[in-house]
């Protein structure tokens, strides 16, 4: 194998796929990049952790075909420290790679590509197209609520629940639940997939806010995403996702409308005076005056602020873990929110008041703390 590549372009491409590598993997071969040239002037780079495989193709000047498995750490360090220039990669022997620069050469020990695990193509698969922009919105609006549950692994991903005229994307970490809905995505079939957190994080890093299509292929066990000369293949989470729709049917009789950033900053300030074990804050709502407060009797500190908001309903005192409210409010993009409550021990619903509410909607459920 011998080819010439721009040092900066190669470095950018390696950074795009680097996060797939899991350095705690039991197979040392997976701590490497697999370089392969099967067609003229195209280099395909592969990384894998067995559950996720990602490939990226870049344009090069190929002199001959071949493959090599190259240690990721030293290759990245070399490329970071070399100014932009063409580099020649030359595998002289089966276990030796030579990198030729304008001012010198570097010899690396490499592995045989035959040792690198082969990923299989998806069989009996279905397909759908979705724009990068929409997929990025789905990830941004759900990923922050994905759980890390060893007992219920289905909570460790985003549930794609697609029907004829509405598509729901759901995530929960047991502390709160997020449902992001988009109307009229024009899929002609019902689709139910649970996609794990890690491949979604990698997609988030690689997607752009454009209308370019992402080609998604899936079957009962795996799914793949193909876009911009990149391909990600991952295992799906198997199991039945919780019946989130039944949780959404509750009717609320106490409604708060408040500016999101104002509410978020008030919570952050008052939380400074809360107990560091519970992060407990108290919300008192009434039509005359509403306030937020917290205290820590161990350190003899307390705080409160009056809230400027619109509240409709009977007076209510309700307690929350402020960390969860901060995480929710920090991850939604809107000016105002609607906060709906029933009593101080039932789930509450947060709805961002979005400009594009006719086409998309976000509903978030959160449980209060016991008083």
Question: How would you briefly describe this protein structure?
Answer:
With 371 residues, this protein is α+β, with helices and mostly antiparallel strands. The protein contains seven helices and 26 strands.
Total helix count?
Answer: 7
CATH class of the largest domain: Alpha Beta
Distance between the termini: 68 Å
Shape from CA axes?
elongated
What is the topology, as strand order, of the major beta sheet?
14-11-12-13-26-25-24-18-22
Strand fraction equals 35-45%
Rg, Å, rounded: 25 Å
What count of domains describes the coordinates?
3
Helix- and strand-based class?
alpha+beta
CATH superfamily of the largest domain: DNA Polymerase III, subunit A, domain 2
Residue share in helix? 10-25%
Notable features of this structure?
371 residues, alpha+beta, DNA Polymerase III, Chain A, domain 2, 9-stranded antiparallel beta sheet, 8-stranded antiparallel beta sheet, 7 helices, 18% helix, elongated
Mind explaining what this structure looks like?
The strands form four sheets. Strands 14-11-12-13-26-25-24-18-22 form a nine-stranded antiparallel sheet. It has an eight-stranded antiparallel sheet with strand order 6-2-3-4-17-16-15-10. The chain has a five-stranded antiparallel sheet with strand order 5-1-7-8-9. The radius of gyration is 25 Å and the shape is elongated. Helix content is about 20%, strand content about 45%. It contains seven helices and 26 strands. It is of the alpha+beta class and about 375 residues long. A hairpin with a 3-residue loop joins strand 11 and strand 12. It folds into three domains: about 110 residues, DNA Polymerase III, Chain A, domain 2, CATH 3.10.150.10; about 120 residues, DNA Polymerase III, Chain A, domain 2; about 120 residues, DNA Polymerase III, Chain A, domain 2 (Roll), CATH 3.10.150.
């Amino acid at each position: 194998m011998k080819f010439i590549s721009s040092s900066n372009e190669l470095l950018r491409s390696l950074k795009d796929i680097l996060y797939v590598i899991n350095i705690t993997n039991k197979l040392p071969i997976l701590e490497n990049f697999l370089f392969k040239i099967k067609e003229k002037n195209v280099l395909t780079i592969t990384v894998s952790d067995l559950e996720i495989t990602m490939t990226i193709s870049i344009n090069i000047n190929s002199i001959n075909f071949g493959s090599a498995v190259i240690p990721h750490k030293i290759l990245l360090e070399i490329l970071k420290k070399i100014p932009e220039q063409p580099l020649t990669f030359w595998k002289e022997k089966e276990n030796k790679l030579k990198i030729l620069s304008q001012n010198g050469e570097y010899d690396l020990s490499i592995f045989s590509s035959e040792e690198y695990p082969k990923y299989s193509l998806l069989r009996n698969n279905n397909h759908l197209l979705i724009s990068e922009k929409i997929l990025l919105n789905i990830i941004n609006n759900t990923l922050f609520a994905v759980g890390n549950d060893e007992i219920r692994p289905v909570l460790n991903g985003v549930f794609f629940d697609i029907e004829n005229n509405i598509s729901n994307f759901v995530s929960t970490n047991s502390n709160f639940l997020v449902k992001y809905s988009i109307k009229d995505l024009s899929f002609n079939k019902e689709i139910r997939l649970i996609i794990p957190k890690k491949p979604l994080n990698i997609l988030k890093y690689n997607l752009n806010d454009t209308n370019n299509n992402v080609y998604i292929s899936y079957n009962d066990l795996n799914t793949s995403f193909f876009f911009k000369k990149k391909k990600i293949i991952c295992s799906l989470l198997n199991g039945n996702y919780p019946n989130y729709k039944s949780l959404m049917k509750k009717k609320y009789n106490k409604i708060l409308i408040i500016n999101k950033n104002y509410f978020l900053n008030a919570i952050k300030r008052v939380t400074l005076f809360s107990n560091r074990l519970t992060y407990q804050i108290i919300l008192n709502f009434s039509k005359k005056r509403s306030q937020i407060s917290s205290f820590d009797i161990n350190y003899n500190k307390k705080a409160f602020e009056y809230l400027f908001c619109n509240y409709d309903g009977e007076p209510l005192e309700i307690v929350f873990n402020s960390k969860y409210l901060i995480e929710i409010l920090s991850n939604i993009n809107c000016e105002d929110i609607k906060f709906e409550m029933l009593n101080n021990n039932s789930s509450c619903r947060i709805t961002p008041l979005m400009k594009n509410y006719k086409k998309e909607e976000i509903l978030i459920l959160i449980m209060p703390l016991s008083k």
